[in-house]
Design brief:
Order of helices and strands: HHHHHHHHHHHHH
Largest sheet: none
Mean pLDDT: 78
Radius of gyration: 22 Å
Number of helices: 13
Structural class: mainly alpha
Distance between the termini: 46 Å
């Protein structure tokens, strides 16, 4: 990434020098905006370095990357909050739900709408996966969805409602998930929240397995759990799906 940034700055410098030396300063009005637009994907790529490390199995390096960013943005309260949420999210995806919850509880005010939605959603999901109070988890998730509307959240809501015996509500939430899931969106909410599609697939398949189990449709549940368990990249959701498969066999 550092090499990419060096090349990017070299392009700005050389392009500006060449245009000025050729007497075509007016072209800078086209050249510089285009170069600045190119910086957006570079910034996103750099911002997700911890994400790539985590999913490559280099978990310790992923947390080191987040710590590096904490030092870099030590004077920015808003960035510190975002980085705390990132760490909580990483811990959740490791299955370290208590550690994730402790980080979430330590967050004070100052969260933007997207961050508050993520905080409540993680809190709800931690409780759901760890066998906590399902009614409270459902309440937190509903509050989260007022800030952040992600298609898979409707599926999680449907699972909770099924397991709470709220059949009508569950069917409505499941229908909403089906209607939204194929929408082509790169990020959600008022601030950047990139969806990791490689992780999202086993996550959704695991939840579909839970949903159909709660409906009493064991064969359909096992189909989705098998798809999650056989995902090419191991994750918490491949593990949980394999465990459920062994329990329902």
């Amino acid at each position: 990434m550092k090499l990419a940034m060096l090349l990017y700055y070299a392009l700005i410098f050389l392009g500006t020098v060449l245009l000025v030396s050729a007497g075509r300063q007016g072209w800078l009005l086209v050249f510089l905006p285009l170069v600045l637009l190119a910086s957006v994907p570079l910034a996103v790529w750099d911002g997700l370095q911890y994400h790539r490390l985590f999913h490559a199995g280099r978990v310790e390096e992923a947390f080191e990357e987040v710590s590096r960013r904490e030092r870099k943005y030590a004077r920015s309260p808003r960035m510190r909050i975002r980085l705390q949420l990132i760490k909580a999210q990483l811990y959740t995806n490791m299955g370290a739900f208590e550690t994730s919850d402790r980080l979430l509880e330590g967050l004070g005010g100052g969260l933007d709408s997207n961050a508050e939605g993520l905080r409540l959603g993680l809190k709800s999901f931690n409780s759901f996966l760890s066998g906590g109070d399902l009614a409270a988890a459902h309440q937190d998730l509903a509050a989260s969805m007022k800030h952040l509307d992600v298609p898979a959240t409707h599926l999680l809501l449907a699972v909770m409602e099924r397991e709470l015996g709220r059949t009508v509500e569950a069917e409505a939430s499941f229908g909403t998930f089906l209607a939204l899931k194929n929408r082509k969106r790169f990020f959600f909410g008022k601030t950047l929240l990139v969806m990791d599609k490689q992780l999202l697939i086993p996550y959704e398949q695991y939840l579909l397995g839970r949903y159909y189990l709660a409906c009493g449709e064991t064969a359909e549940a096992r189909h989705h759990l098998r798809l999650a368990a056989q995902a090419p990249r191991p994750s918490l959701y491949t593990k949980l799906s394999a465990e459920l498969l062994s329990q329902t066999g």
